[in-house]
Amino acid sequence: MEALVTENRRNWDNRTTVFNRLCSLILIAVFIYTGLDKLLRWEASRNAFRNQTFPGELAEALAYAVPITELLITGLLLFSVSRWWGYLSSILLLTVFTTYVGLIWVGAFPRVPCNCAGIIDSLGWAEHFILNLFLIGLAVVGLYMFQSKKPKASASGF
């Protein structure tokens, strides 16, 4: 019986590891794609940031910060030692993006700006919002599964 329990635990651990890696790979692909697209189409991306509803100085800073942050998050997600921070950073950045997309979608701004990457340009605001929610969900599930895989600290004493 103990061998069966051990085997089931090993199978669960393997599935958890595979799903965790899948979550991180999807997020890595999205952040590499969007970050590199902004850098490769630098002038268009910078102009799109300037077209946003926030002040010009902030737009200029974000034109540099957003793609660099996306690529840094990619780096964090690549390695198991930093993956927890990568998931947490993904959740934070995607929450900010999703909030902004949601505000645009409900008409909170006088005009409709966009600084989306490549294929995401073809999505409407509702689809973009749903995609971002899906990606946040992946990051949350990945973070949870990554946490559940860590060995628990045991209390010594008593």
Automatic annotation (TrEMBL):
<dbReference type="GO" id="GO:0030416">
    <property type="term" value="P:methylamine metabolic process"/>
</dbReference>
<protein>
    <submittedName>
        <fullName>DoxX protein</fullName>
    </submittedName>
</protein>
<keyword id="KW-0472">Membrane</keyword>
<feature type="transmembrane region" description="Helical">
    <location>
        <begin position="91"/>
        <end position="109"/>
    </location>
</feature>
<dbReference type="InterPro" id="IPR009908">
    <property type="entry name" value="Methylamine_util_MauE"/>
</dbReference>
<feature type="transmembrane region" description="Helical">
    <location>
        <begin position="61"/>
        <end position="79"/>
    </location>
</feature>
<dbReference type="Pfam" id="PF07291">
    <property type="entry name" value="MauE"/>
</dbReference>
<keyword id="KW-0812">Transmembrane</keyword>
<feature type="domain" description="Methylamine utilisation protein MauE">
    <location>
        <begin position="19"/>
        <end position="144"/>
    </location>
</feature>
<dbReference type="GO" id="GO:0016020">
    <property type="term" value="C:membrane"/>
</dbReference>
<keyword id="KW-1133">Transmembrane helix</keyword>
<feature type="transmembrane region" description="Helical">
    <location>
        <begin position="18"/>
        <end position="36"/>
    </location>
</feature>
<feature type="transmembrane region" description="Helical">
    <location>
        <begin position="129"/>
        <end position="146"/>
    </location>
</feature>
